[in-house]
Amino acid sequence: MKLRSAVTAGLAGLVLALAVPGSAFAATGDFGYSFTDDEGRALSVTLHHPSSDACVNLPYVGSEWVEPGHSPHNDTDQWATVYEGADCTGPTWKLRPHGKPATERLKVRSVYFQSPA
For this UniProt entry, which residues form the secretion signal (predicted)? Predict the structure, then answer.
């Protein structure tokens, strides 16, 4: 059990480090969401300056084999379209820049940030 927790924490750090893009095509700010892991723990993930104009499958919830994430919060400078399915498929919902957090009823697996024209 403790090894699994350590591995989960290590992977979370790696995912967050890799989520910071080196490209100029990035939303400025943070995008976060919550999820429940396979041991029933409530966890949160924050993507710092996520990539724009590309579909992002959300870490830990971007697969149909796990429960989706919920309660997304777009605190970036760009509109975010969240998708219930992986690979930006399924029902969608738009979150305004620097908006309030959504409720846990909004399920998410992927997100797309629209860069300004």
Answer: 1-26
